Amino acid sequence: MRPVVRKWGYLCAMTLSVAVCPLTAMAQLAVATSAAGMPSSTALAPASASTAMLPDIPFAAASAAAPQMPSAADAWGGERTGNQATLSDRVVSYQINAELDAAKHAVTGKERMTWRNRSDRAVSRVYFHLYLNGFQNEGSTWFTERKVLTAHGRSRGAAALKKGEWGWIDLQQVKQGDAALKWTFVQPDGGPATDQTVVRIDLAEPVAAGATLTLDIDFLSQLPRVVERTGWFGDFNLVGQWFPKIGVLELAGERGATAPRWNVHEFHFNSEFYADFGLYDVNLTVPSDYTVGAVGEQQGEPQTANGKTTYHYVQGDVHDFAWVAAKGYKVLDGSWQGPGSPKVALKVLYPPEYVGSAQTQLKASIDSLSYFSDTLGAYPYRTLTVVVPPYNASEAGGMEYPTFYTTDGFTKVEPGTGSQYSSDFVTIHEFGHGYFYGILASNEFEEPMLDEGLNEYWDQRMLRERGQNLDLTTPMLRRLGFAPSFTGFAIERLASGLKQPFDPLGENSWDRFSSSSYGTVYSRTATAMHDLEERLGKEVTERAFHEYYKRWRFRHPSAADLRATLIDVSGNAKAVNEIFDQYVYGTAHIDDRVASIDSIEVLPQVGSVLKDGKRAELDSGELDKQIDKQREDWAKAHPKAKPGSGPFPWSSTVTVSRDGAQVPQLLRVKFADGSSEDVKWNDDRRWARFDFTRPSKVVLATLDPEQKIYLDANKLNDSLTTKADGSASRRWSADVASLLQAFYALVGSL
Question: Which residues on neighbouring strands pair with residue 712, listed in sequence order?
């Protein structure tokens, strides 16, 4: 999902200390009834006696989040070696014939779904997602959660729908062979009984272990006006999450499961999606004057008759299918090929008002193909389609599907400015989802950090390799010498909510303190991975992520699988476990600081001393004369000496303190004569003192002098000097002020 609006909104909310209320969770499973204003099921053939007697397979828990136990070696059919007949272990296939009524923004569809029962037991009922029902009324889980979140802060998807703008999916008929089936709406997460985003279909005959089920489904999908992720605006139709899609039956050893379970969560406000890999064969019929783009490869030439055109798309080894149909759109073509990848045909579909950014987005997509293929693994598909939504439909932007994503439009992209950075970053981010959401196919409901967070981290690595920062300036301001610039990871750190993290990164997408807390999944994960990279080393980290991709592509990994891979490759279990225990599974924070610098000149002392076998006694008057004489002689011999130096040594003590989790620290002290010394603070003490006896006193002490620890909530207290110096605070104040100005300008432009 697009990070830009979310991230800037979260940063603003945290800066302004906007409080948001937690969501409440219901524990009981509810079943929708006709009191909701729609029938809960058809009144057709009941399930057979043999089907009714089979025990139910339970749902994944409503509180499910990142597991701590790694998946089994044979999970999802085992590692894909490249020698198998297909890239993924295909569980499901969809054959869909769909037609768009452009005037009504409605899609009529006929779907034949074939699903393989991977479990060791017969299945008597199956569960489908009907995501569009999240937009059918304000009683859905999506709208119920939105009311709480938008009442206390900013978020995407805040538009109000009016009469004629709601969206839904109506099941018109479901058949298993010749038997018409009945269905019932359920709420696996204990959401309101009026939520109809998950449906249970009772089978006429059970599906035996290892056997396949074929269902024929007639449906009608009414697109909503764009409110978030999908829908229509004017003659633009982004058709996402538009067809009945079967849930995932997870087996023991997969993502923490100990027995078969249905992973089929309701459509939550902050959640995205999770589905089995399979094959999609889709025919799309639209008015002939509409431009079409879709997941997968177009088969042959479109067929036109009676003012309508039918396009045929096929794509295997993906877990979703989305498409766009828009009037008046233009197409920019490109191509790319890299080692181990097929030749990729690229298309950028854009409205005329955004012609100024089409070429930029094509280049960013091509560059992303190269970077992700080089650092993670070869891109396996033959197509990549990029869609730019029209003006006033920006909420359809920043959405990802396999081989297909939407981005943001700009009337003009100024090189070296915020518009260039924003355009490139959103495009790179949405492309990156093709790996972390698409090929790795993590569970975005339960572990959003594995997609949004890891993707954000890898995007910033790419921008770092490009040397591309966020420049908060214009050509005119640059000529005046005003050009504040932020690195990508500095932006992530500012948006991470490091001072008081409410939820672990590994928490699911909906059971969070606030929408802002969900937003830190992006930035705090990127920041945590940045710091882990600093501890493991850039090259080791890249090898580890390459191995993660190799092991878990097409297999739905968990956070525990990522941790195991990082440990295996790096050999540094201590560093990896600290990051995961403190941040992925915990809510630790770091705030180490330099508390004080105390320096004392080591002078001769009053009293009796034994020297060269003779005892002498000095009183204060004699000692003062001796000290003065030594100072005078030393000053003559060192006319250019810096303050803090002299004939007598200095004993300096630097005190550091810790408020939060332990992190290996480097302390660098600088002395008055210009020399410096580094010491390590790598233990669990809450405070520590370091003593230095040198010819000159300590004038500056700095923790993390190389700026490797971005998880530290307050970097301003990492350094202390014996002489007042406001340059650091002035610089940070100016940087934050510039960042806020850019934020307000960005909000005004959306």
Answer: 590
How far is it, in rounded angstroms, from Cα 563 to Cα 70? 8
Per DSSP bridges, beta strands 248-250 and 245-246 are unpaired
User: What 3-state DSSP class applies to 494?
Assistant: helix
Cα 741 → chain centroid: 25
CA distance 428 to 459: 6
Neighbours of 58 (CB within 10 A): 11
In the three-class reduction of DSSP (H, G, I as helix; E, B as strand; rest coil), residue 491 is classed as helix
Which amino acid belongs to residue 21? C
Range list of H helices, 128-238: 141-150
Among 333, 408, 321, residue whose Cα is nearest residue 311: 321
- Report the phi/psi class of residue 746: left, alpha or beta, with left for phi > 0 and alpha for psi in -120 to 50: alpha
* Chain centroid offset of residue 309 CA: 38
- 48, two tokens: 């057979």
Measured distance CA(194)–CA(501) in Å, rounded: 33
Give the residue among 346, 396, 380, 112 at the shortest CA–CA distance from 240.
396
Q: At what angle do helices 538-552 and 355-375 cross, to 10 degrees?
A: 90
Residue with tokens 């009834």: 33
How many distinct helices (H) and strands (E) make up the chain? Answer: 14, 36
Beta bridge partners of 248: 263
Secondary structure (3-state) at 7:
helix
Rounded Cα distance between 186 and 199, Å, is: 6
Tell me which residues of the chain have a pLDDT lower than 50. 4-51, 727-732, 734-735, 738, 740-750
Segments of 50-158 assigned E as strands? 92-101, 106-116, 123-129
**Cβ proximity of 690 and 654 under 8 Å:** yes
Nearest to 253 by CA among 60, 73, 118: 73
Burial 430-469 (b: 16+ CB within 10 A, else e): bbbbbbbbbbbbbbbbbbbbbbbbbbbbbbbbbbeeeebb
Alpha carbon distance 470, 360 (integer Å): 16
Mean model confidence pLDDT for the chain:
86
Could you tell me which residues come within 8 angstroms of residue 39 by beta carbon, excluding any fewer than 6 positions away? Answer: none
Residue 590 is given by DSSP the state B
How far is Cα 597 from Cα 720, in angstroms, rounded to an integer? 8
Cα separation, 458 vs 435, whole angstroms: 10
Residue 182 in tokens: 């009945």
For residue range 471-509, list pLDDT tens digits in order.
776 666 666 666 677 888 888 988 888 888 999 999 999
**Phi/psi of residue 522, nearest 5 degrees:** -65, -65
Do residues 465 and 371 touch, judged by C-beta distance below 8 A?
yes
86-108 pLDDT per residue, tens: 999 999 999 999 999 999 999 99
- Alpha helices in 243-401, H assignment, sequence order: 355-375
How many Å apart are CA 470 and CA 618, to the nearest integer? 66
CA distance 735 to 750: 23
Dist CA 342 CA 369 (whole Å) = 12
The CB-side HSE value for 657 (13 A sphere, CA atoms) comes to 7
**C-alpha 146: how far from chain center:** 20
pTM exceeds 0.85, yes or no: yes
> Which tokens hold the place of 337?
């090929």
